[in-house]
Amino acid sequence: MKWVKLTLKTVTEAVELVSDMLMDLGIEGLEIKDNVPITERERKELFIDILPELDTDNKEAFISFYLEEGDNAKEVIRSVKEGLSELSQFVDTGSGEIEISETEDTDWINNWKTYFKPFRLDDNIVIKPTWEELNDKKDGDIVIELDPGTAFGTGSHETTKLCILALKKYLTPGMEVLDVGSGSGILSIIASRLGAKKVLGTDIDPHAVETSIENRAVNKISEEKVAFLSGDIISDDNLKETVGFEKYDIVVANILADIIIPLSGKIGMHLKYGGLFISSGIINMKKEQVLTAVKANGFEVLAVEEMGDWVSIIAKHPFAEGL
After folding, report:
1. Which of 99, 227, 271, 306 is deepest in the core (most CB within 10 A)?
2. Domain 114-316 belongs to what architecture?
3. Is 203 within any annotated ligand binding site?
């Protein structure tokens, strides 16, 4: 099906009123493009580390919405123009120009799969999408089948690679691993394939947990070996109890700097004496902030690894209890 896309040109100050007017006309699913920076609270809720540069002096704004092919676009435009005319008596609504274009009905959620192909992460770890064939498997390869769905983690991003390389270096068979912010479950599954006795993954997004459970099944790993829980391990006391204290040889957290900083003050209680905290997802401009927090919370930094603009910190928890 083809859709008609209408884009209305207005100004920042009028966006809210114009949006309300459009919704009063029964138009939903609005897309707004402007140069208004998001708030600090919004940034944290969206887990964004790097914000785009905006021309805040530019007060233009664009509101887009879609009509089905059979809808009367001329009638809708007439109603919108009337609404703008009324609003313009009270506020500057800008030019009010409306651009019309057509777009195909596209499966946006699954289109990215076209570009996700099997790839070799290093000498013997291969990431294979569940819908692709693998033609170059070598003896000794560890093949991880993956469908990330809407969860983060295909293994191709530098932050995930840094974690996997750290797991290969520090994980020995029989260890227990906690994966905080497990996303698609890729790190939990790899930890298990590298010999971990038991792995527990946690994620605040229940949909990510559903995805990770599906990926566990695809890789034929039992729940006894790899389990997943939904919740915030920083603030949820019940989840902390369920995860267990002084239990894990390694905690791996591929999240963001602004989450790793408070996490470093809580995660020590879950580690065994001398356990390792592997953190990644740290943009290089925040490396020193994370290092300061990790050290302040009693960890001994063993290594700082970098790949592109991203940083991974491997730290040892020297205390038996108490963080």
Report:
1. 271
2. 3-Layer(aba) Sandwich (3.40)
3. yes
Residue 38's pLDDT band, with cuts at 50, 70 and 90, is low
DSSP 8-state assignment for residue 85: H
Asked whether residue 72 is marked as a ligand-binding residue, the answer is no
Alpha-carbon span 219 to 90, nearest angstrom: 61
Is residue 77 pLDDT above 70, yes or no? yes
Dihedral sign from CA coordinates of 297, 299, 300, 301: negative
Q: Go through the chain and tell me how many residues it has.
A: 323
Which residue spans of the chain are classified as CATH 3.40.50.150? 114-316
Query: Cα–Cα distances in Å, from 113 out to 107, 132, 154?
Result: 11, 10, 11
Evaluate whether 274 touches 187 at the Cβ level (below 8 Å): no
Please give the Cα distance from 264 to 283 (Å, whole number): 16
User: For the chain, where do the domains classified as CATH 3.30.70.120 start and end?
Assistant: 2-106
C-alpha span between 226 and 188 (Å, rounded): 7
- 254 marked as binding residue: yes
130 is in an annotated binding site: no
Is the CATH code 1.10.579.10 the one for domain 2-106?
no
Exposed / middle / buried, residue 277 (Cβ in 10 Å: 0-12, 13-18, 19+): buried
- Cα–Cα distance, 53 to 81 (Å, whole number): 32
Q: For residue 229, list its beta bridge partners.
A: 202
Quote the tokens at residue 209. 């947990």
